[in-house]
Design a protein that fits this description.
214 residues, disordered N terminus, mainly beta, 16 strands
């Protein structure tokens, strides 16, 4: 039985499309800072030139837990978050109306198009997204984040009292997002617990931390 399970697992790995891979932010992203939030896209994404039903269709993309079609689309180019096991796909949003969202469908070229909302609650502003997923899963610090991100302060202000520094965090628990600041409880690897405010985002929109979705 064990050999059969191993064989089936190997077979599944061999037949999966090359573009079947999870996507999560790794480093601080200095491009596409004009985004206002994220939209959880359906399995079929119809991209329109403008927010009208009779507008020209730019492209249609289909995705599932095993890949994206057309196969020449890389998950990293389309998604900000793509979790295979959860069938979860979020793309960056640059504009919104009551019925439509303008998304970035190519993160490399910053190309945008409109998709019609299939559910108004699937759009999340950045603060809403962090408050939901950050509180559930915690946060992690992105590579390239400035050193001051590790400074824990008494209030959501750069001039407030310095309380402690994050060293090697085993977990960063998010309590609440307030503007560009996050009230967190940090457990370092030395088992030291620290609570206070840290910068999760710069004044220019650069994000330094991200929800640790698993």
């Amino acid at each position: 039985m064990q050999k059969l399970i191993v064989f089936l697992g190997l077979l599944l790995w061999l037949v999966l499309p090359a573009n079947a891979t999870d996507v999560m932010p790794v480093s601080v992203e200095l491009n596409n800072l004009r985004t206002i939030g994220l939209y959880q896209v359906p399995k079929t994404i119809t991209l329109y030139e403008s927010p009208k039903d009779d507008s020209k269709i730019v492209k249609t993309i289909k995705w599932s837990s095993i890949g994206i079609y057309p196969e020449n689309i890389n998950p990293q180019d389309l998604f900000v978050v793509f979790i295979l096991g959860k069938d979860l796909g979020y793309v960056a949003v640059t504009d919104e109306t009551d019925e439509w969202v303008q998304i970035i469908y190519n993160n490399k070229t910053a190309e945008t198009a409109w998709i019609k909302k299939d559910d108004p609650y699937k759009f999340m502003s950045w603060i809403h997204f962090y408050n939901v997923y950050g509180r559930k899963y915690g946060l992690y610090i992105l590579k390239g984040a400035p050193d001051f991100v590790k400074n824990i302060r008494s209030a959501a202000d750069d001039s407030s009292q310095f309380l402690a520094e994050i060293n090697m965090p085993a977990k960063i628990k998010l309590n609440v997002i307030r503007g560009n600041w996050a009230l967190v409880s940090v457990l370092d690897l030395d088992r030291t617990s620290k609570t206070g405010y840290i910068r999760w985002r710069g004044d220019n929109g650069v994000r330094y931390l991200f929800p640790d979705i698993k």
